[in-house]
Design a protein that fits this description.
Elements lengths: L1 E2 L5 E3 L4 E4 H9 L4 H13 L10 H18 L10 H15 L4 H8 L4 H11 L8 E3 L5 E3 L6 H14 L7 H9 L6 H9 L1
Parallel strand pairs: 1-3
Antiparallel strand pairs: 2-3, 4-5
Amino acid sequence: NVGEYPYLVATDGRTLNFDGEKLLRYYADGGDGAVVVLHPLLHCLFLHPFHRTECFFDWSVAADICTACVTDEMGLSFGSYRDESERKTVYKSIIDEYDVMNASSCERYLQGKPQEEKDRLSALFSLCDHSLWQTKDRGGKEESEASDDGLEEIWRKIALQTFSSPGVEEGTMKDLLSVSAGKRLSYRAFLRRILK
C-alpha cells in the first residue's frame, strides 16, 4: 500500500506499507530501493513481528540490528546517513559476547544499556516502523496482532521453505533461517564473513 504514513515503510506480516514522499527522500539520500523491500520481508522471515516481549522498544531495535546485519552483508545501502563501520562494530560486539547473531542475542545485548544508548542504536539501525507489530492484550501486555490468525505459522513455513531451497546461497540470511529452523551454525565463520 502506498499512501501517507508516519514512516517510510512498515509491515504487519500481511501488507507492506510505504509513504511515497519519504521513499523519494530516501532515494535522494542514496538509499537502495531493494533494502526498503527486503528489510521488512526479512523481519517476517525471521518472525520478528510475532515475538511477544516485555520491552517492545528493545525488541524492535534488536530486530533491526539482526536484519541490518543481513542487508549489510548483502551490500545494500541504508543511505548516506548510515555508518556501516559502526554497525559492523555492534555486530562484532554481539557475536563476541553471545557467540550468536539473532534478534534474541541482540535484545540481550541491549539489556542494561542506558536509554540514550538504545536510542542511538535505534537511529543507527532502524529503517521501518514496527508499531504495526504491537497491540495490547487485556492485561496490558504487548503482543503481536498477527499471531492470532495463523500468520506466524504461514511465515514460519515460508522461512523453512526458503532455507531449504537449493537456490539459497551460503550467507547470513541462510544462517539466520538455519538457526530459526533449529540447526547449528559456526558463528566464528559467520563473523568472518560479516567483517571482511
